[in-house]
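Crash report, auto-generated. Payload:
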Amino acid sequence: MKNNILHKANTRFSADHGWLKSAQTFSFHDHYDPQRIQFGALRVLNDDIVHGGKGFGRHPHDNMEIISIPLEGTLEHQDSMGNVAVIRPGEIQAMSAGTGIYHTEFNKDPAEPVTFLQIWLYPNKLNVTPRYDQLDYSKGDKHNKFLQILSPDLNDEGVWIQQEAWFHIGELDNGFETRYSLKKAGNGLYVFVIKGNVVVNDQALEQRDGYGLWPDANVQIAATSDAEVLLMEIPEKW
Amino acid sequence: MKNVNILVLADHAEILETIIRLINKNDGWNGTGVASYDEAQEALKINKFDLVLLGVGVDDEAEAKILRLCESIAPRTVCMRHYGGGSGLLSSEIQHALAQRNLNV
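Recovered output after restart:
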């Protein structure tokens, strides 16, 4: 049986570049810990805050699935495929970097910071043609349920990526309980608590905690305060 | 400090340049870039590399060829995929690979 893994919020790597503050769950840039490399295909989970009027200048990516979920503020994306888009809370952006793409991510609001989750997954196929997808899920029903916002299927709910992974997001009232059932047997589930407190199976989690587990088939999730939770179903092998 | 020599194979010129530049920013790391299997083969014959990173454009078949090449002419060389195109993964990929070889850097 695999071991479940708890990543408390205050154990994340901390990076402060002035204009960017980042809390990083896994090894990234100059932070290296052999025990904190990945959870299956989930390789990067960065909780970034970018100052007003600042951002990431033009830089490349290849062969990674790059997902951005704004939590507060707005982010403008521009890329070498010609995509120009602004993403806001209630939206998700996914880039399959494939054979290579350049992009910028910029907070155009001069006064307010933007807080967003930057999530990278290994792809299950290398060197694909790069693509971009964006979804507004703000009108979707995620109150006391989990709304699918990402999948491997172009024709399914959510943005689609080059990996057998599914993301769901839920806003749970204090005391609400539910179960999440795996889409694919053998997958792991990484739970990230955006806000509030929950108990996953027997594990209590606080705000910005991460918890990776390999359940048999489904997982019990109970909110012990009003909470917002991101569920990432992740393959171990691909 | 022992120099670590890293060969990077990728067929995207700008990304390859980015990766080499990022590697060479680190004291003790020396990056060499090549864009094809043939160039990689020549480089491995001439120089000793501690690590070979396989980047964009290297498909599974080419990766298997490079692995066989490394095994035959440079068995101490760690050969692995680089993901992200010179992204925030690069440094920890290199450190992880070197830790596996127990190099002191």
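Post-recovery validation: Strands of chain B lie at 4-9, 29-34, 51-54, 78-81.
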